[in-house]
Amino acid sequence: MKKVFFTLLTILSVTFSFGQILNPVKFDYSVVKKGAGLYEVHVKTLLEPKWHIYSVANPEGGAEATTLKLSSGTAVGKVKEKGLLKTTFDKEFQVNQKYYESNVDFVQLVKTTADKITGTITYMVCNDKQCLPPKEVEFKVKL
Questions:
Q1: Which of 12, 19, 81, 93 is the most exposed place for a label (fewest CB within 10 A)?
Q2: CA-to-CA distance for 79 and 90, rounded, in angstroms?
Q3: How confident is the prediction for the chain on average, in pLDDT?
Q4: Phi-psi map region of 9: left, alpha, beta (phi>0 left; psi -120 to 50 alpha)
Q5: Which residue, among 130, 132, 134, has the nearest Cα to 120 in the 3D structure?
């Protein structure tokens, strides 16, 4: 009986260890005051080696472009990107994909009178073997 129990326990342990959720992206949120009621929200994105995230300007027909949506405050202008942009023709999608490797800082100018800025970032990441489905992450930064 003990042998059967330990065998089942070992099989379950191995099975669960392979079921971990893959998340090769880490975000760091910050804000810089630019004037009365005007702030720059920075979403610094760090990627594990060999992974890349798509630009906010990735063309239609390609992988899903990164989007930054505000739940509080009003966006002023478009999202800017600070990082080393790469462009490569993708045979699968038949478009020139725009992406960042290792890191990128997505920056949005926001007008608000609140004490915090909230929103979501929706993104898709790929490596040379696979793409993960688009994911939406909520964020909140205190002013």
A1: 19
A2: 24
A3: 89
A4: alpha
A5: 134
Write out the two tokens for 108.
């949005």
For residue range 124-137, what is the model confidence (pLDDT) as tens digits?
Answer: 999 999 999 999 99
What is the domain class of 22-142 according to CATH? mainly beta
How far is it, in rounded angstroms, from Cα 105 to Cα 33? 17
pLDDT of 18 strictly over 60: no
110 exposed, middle or buried (CB, 10 Å; 0-12, 13-18, 19+)? buried
What would the two tokens of residue 116 be? 């915090």
Helix H, strand E, coil C: the string for the chain is CHHHHHHHHHHHHHHHHHCCCCCCEEEEEEEEEEECCEEEEEEEEEECCCCEEECCCCCCCCCCCCEEEECCCEEEEEEEEECCEEEEEECCCCEEEEEEECEEEEEEEEECCCCEEEEEEEECEECCCCECCCEEEEEEEEC
Give the residue extent of every domain in the chain. Answer: 22-142
